[in-house]
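Posting this for the archive.
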Amino acid sequence: MKASEIREVSTQELVTKLDDARQELMNLRFQMAMGGLKDYTRLRITRKNIARLSTILAEREALATEKGEA
């Protein structure tokens, strides 16, 4: 998912997607530890998606805080 696509999604959906991505990362790590993971690039993609989602959520929080203080 691209950052521009993520910015169009509501905050509640972002939180849900972030939770899902973190769960997927945990499952991928478990599969890797058990030796069943075939596509290691999914780990990298999932980590990047988590970073994108977290960054955009932080931006929204900072913007909300800024508007609240002004």
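The mean pLDDT is 93. The chain has one domain: 3-65.
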